[in-house]
Amino acid sequence: MKRNLMSWLVFTVLCVGMLAVLFSSPVDYYIQTLKNGETVLVTATDSESRLREQIEAHADKVNIPPKNAVVDRVWKAIPGLNGLEVDVDASLERMKKKQRFQENLVVFKEVPPQVTLSDLPPAPVYKGHPDKPMVAFIVNVAWGNEYIPDILQILREEGLRVSFFLEGRWTKENMELARMIAQDGHSIGNHSYSHPQMERLSLEAARQEISKTNEVIEAVLGNKPQWFGPPSGGYNDLTIQAAAEENMRTVLWSVDTIDWKNPNPDEMAARVSEQIHPGAIVLMHPTEAVTKGLRPMIKQIQAKDLRISNISDVLSEQRKSQEVVSLLLDDF
Prior knowledge:
By secondary structure, the protein is an alpha/beta fold.
């Protein structure tokens, strides 16, 4: 009887002592079940420390290093691409409630490369980085006024903003159409002033074609273009130099609709879809083939999980928010 009473007193003292520790200490405690089924009492500090270790271990597996911009022997200037790195502190903050690792709550941040497109020497750009799931549409405009409203309507309905490269002379003669394009949020590029064969021009003549167009576009739309698209893709070293002296990069394309040959619109869309690739720059003009084939072309490209945007977005180092694996869940 005395032994039972003594055991009960010892047990009571231990329980009271444990409760005193729990309620008097400023440190929070958690019951944690180990893999072997054993339960242990851990402090919040211990739990967070273990959680941080798990996040750091996960980061070692999933971090993606940035890619530097390069000048390729075939494709010329190729932009860099930001890396993805787990933000350990932000991820830990999001997982504190549950006190356990949850992959869908990992937060990523972008890490810029050491060499960007702006660091490269003057060279034409044919495509974006091959690891970037985006596609640029560029519409070269020097004629085809009757098709522009329909093209803008389709892009508006599809929620897309692309790039229109405007000839200076055309812009001067069609200011309202140029403003309509810009007001829809499409970016504006320079397509020379009078649509010459740029590869046959002297450095001074090439620079005049580019600078004169910049002046017209800036006067009509209020912005100076940063990209130059030579007519028919014609250029030489002097063309590239002239654009560079205007602080511009020369842009060409990796996929051509060849819409000026009046192809069957469905066949045109299918051919573009077959040739499409991450980082592609797709060339088109305001033509009947484009007005009829643009929507199916958009659908077929998007079906390949490629996002369509303007030239600046595709050639930037940014990965864009939808590529960053960070699900903003408030209720979990």
